[in-house]
Design brief:
Layout lengths: L3 E8 L3 E15 L2 E8 L4 H13 L2 H7 L6
Antiparallel strand pairs: 1-2, 2-3
């Protein structure tokens, strides 16, 4: 926790994003390690594209696509 890293990911149909992030927390479950990240240098445009993508998804769609995992 607290470590910084560079993360890159594709926002489907919108953008490829590369940002610096800081690990805020991690949780270990069965065979997975889940991380909570804080983006440190995300631009307004990147934030808008990510927000628009998330807003367009219902929770059921996100779970089915593997984008979101229920806690």
């Amino acid at each position: 926790e607290g470590e910084s890293l560079v993360v890159s990911f594709m926002v489907p149909g919108r953008a490829f994003i590369i940002v610096r992030a800081q690990i805020q927390y991690l949780t270990k479950e069965a065979n997975e390690v889940l991380y909570g990240l804080k983006f440190l240098n995300i631009t307004f445009d990147q934030r808008r594209k990510l927000r628009d993508f998330i807003a367009a998804k219902t929770e059921a769609e996100a779970v089915a696509d593997g984008v979101f995992k229920r806690p």
